[in-house]
Amino acid sequence: MNPPPAIDEDLVRRLPLPLAQLYRRAHNAKTPLERHLSAFYLWEAALKLLGAVAVAAYAERPNTDPALAERLQNLARPSLGHWWQLVRLLTPVLAEAGDAGFASVRDLLFARARDDLPRAAVLDAALVEVLQGKSAARSTVRLADLFEHLVSYRNREFGHGAAGARPAGHYERLGRALLLGMADVLGRLDVLAGHRLLYVAEVRRRGDGD
Description:
9 helices, mainly alpha
């Protein structure tokens, strides 16, 4: 296995703790498959965290859309595709309602193709090659398309016990692309959209029953 790229300690300090731990775990992986899995789980956790923040922010609004409320029923047993769907649906609503954090998320994920995220572009090209058999160098990337490709990749590579079935070279190449590409994305994307992540160690019932 090739040595991992140098870890970005500044990114580690800025990431929410669960993501920082996954990022470091991917760098410290002992095998190509382990790096591949950890790097993919880094993106998966980032997406779920962004989706959870979007749901919480939307729930605080005084008026909600019945159609969107129906989509939130998917939270009973959400798949990765459901989390991405919630981000796609709620981000523009929150941005248009004046949430500056989600306005930034919208402008990053759903705007024009970008030429300032070269490692994310390499990751998107690698995913398209695996999913569609199309090999092409890319210098730009639209992050919404990249996220769609990651969901499709998850469904193909992790479903029905398929994880680990490919040659080591596949996991070496895709694991490295995932790790570098996600560092590129997470260096720009605030998955908390300006909010804070708090850890609650314990919840107790008071003597009066509350």
